[in-house]
Amino acid sequence: MPLIHIDLIEGRNEDQLRGLVKDVTAAVVKNTGAPAEHVHVVLNEMSKNHYSVAGTLKSDEKQ
């Protein structure tokens, strides 16, 4: 049973997340031969103030 964890910053809509898990599942099926019903994808969304790059919170970055 492939188990894929994806960590990402919140802000994507439901359609984007559906597309993501569909495409990830298809890639795992293609490359491992596992049946789709055995592929599990866990999305962990975090707020911008819980993630940083180079010591700067994403919430502090200028858009």
Q: What is the compact description of this entry?
A:
The protein has 63 residues and is an alpha+beta fold. It contains 1 helix and 4 strands; from the N terminus they run βαβββ.
Account of the 3D structure:
The protein is of the alpha+beta class. The protein contains one helix and four strands, in the order E-H-E-E-E. The strands form two sheets. Strands 1-2 form a two-stranded parallel sheet. The longest helix is centred in the middle third of the chain and has 19 residues, at 14-32. The radius of gyration is 15 Å and the shape is elongated. The chain starts with a strand and ends in a 6-residue tail after the last strand. Keywords: Isomerase. Belongs to the 4-oxalocrotonate tautomerase family. Its EC number is 5.3.2.-. Pfam families: Tautomerase.
Write out key terms for the chains shown.
4 strands; 63 residues; two-stranded parallel sheet; two-stranded antiparallel sheet; 30% helix; alpha+beta
SS field, number of helical segments = 1
Beta-strand percent range: 25-35%
Distance between the termini: 40 Å
Number of strands: 4
InterPro entries: 4-OT, 4-OT-like_dom, Tautomerase/MIF_sf
GO molecular function: isomerase activity
Protein name: Tautomerase
Family: Belongs to the 4-oxalocrotonate tautomerase family.
Topology record:
Blueprint: E1 3-9, H1 14-32, E2 40-46, E3 52-53, E4 56-57
Parallel strand pairs: 1-2
Antiparallel strand pairs: 3-4
